Amino acid sequence: xxxxxxxxxxxxxxxxxxxxxxxxxxxxxxxxxxxxxxxxxxxxxxxxxxxxxxxxxxxxxxxxxxxxxxxxxxxxxxxxxxxxxxxxxxxxxxxxxxxxxxxxxxxxxxxxxxxxxxxxxxxxxxxxxxxxxxxxxxxxxxxxxxxxxxxxxxxxxxxxxxxxxxxxxxxxxxxxxxxxxxxxxxxxxxxxxxxxxxxxxxxxxxxxxxxxxxxxxxxxxxxxxxxxxxxxxxxxxxxxxxxxxxxxxxxxxxxxxxxxxxxxxxxxxxxxxxxxxxxxxx
Length: 282
Known about the structure:
The protein is an alpha/beta fold and 282 residues long. The chain has 2 domains: 2-89, Elongation Factor Tu (Ef-tu), domain 3 (Beta Barrel), CATH 2.40.30.10; 100-209, 3-Layer(aba) Sandwich (Rossmann fold). Helices cover 32% and strands 32% of the residues. The protein has 8 helices and 16 strands. The chain has helices at residues 22-27, 68-74, 110-122, 142-146, 167-177, 189-201, 235-238, 249-279, and strands at 2-11, 14-20, 33-37, 45-53, 58-64, 81-82, 84-89, 100-106, 126-133, 151-156, 163-164, 182-186, 205-209, 225-228, 231-234, 241-243. The strands form 3 sheets. The protein has a 7-stranded antiparallel sheet with strand order 6-1-2-5-4-3-7. A 7-stranded mixed sheet has the order 11-10-9-8-12-13-16, with helices on both faces. Strand 8 (100-106), helix 3 and strand 9 (126-133) form a beta-alpha-beta unit. Helix 5 (167-177) runs parallel beside helix 6.
């Protein structure tokens, strides 16, 4: 069992959880993730490790409240514990002095960008951070990310905060004004696809971090498979980061949409069971 130290809502659909996981805190590196279960009957979900405190033995996780499991997670308090926290999993981000690194995070993807940007800066890179969301109240970690890079650009789709622009537009302007050695992009799949199409035109190496459905975290279930450079890869053991110019994003989006349908069925079933319990129906 892993005790929850805090679990707070930081936007209408995003929560921040600090949980006790001493082994993970000590051994995790930027880009790695954990797989957790909240109880014996719960599903396993992957979450990137946003931060850790080795002395306290804790890790920090951010998650979107989008399905049954994350809805249940959002109701946990510091009196509760998680059943399982397995990790650190996945290959760490390749951190070295590239030169100029642009880290782009969209939505909940801003959370995994934070440790990568931090590590890239410590490695001596010029780091430019671009973070984006649909609207102001969905932005996360603006202050934290703004404190670690050389420059930060904030974009909102509706212009309610920062620049009214997509993150792709901000990246295009940076590329036009100065050489960029590598781009790290994490966020919704359509966003990563658009960024990779842009950087491919300019021959800029681009790494993306994928977060599909995972079950076991060992590559056995195949739920997280993705096609990279024409070959089947498993995000849990081969990733989570891949060369964005080689990822089949169209296939990935199709796969994720099928999982969304199953998640909706799970939510509807859960609601029905609760109603049956209230009304006494079998």
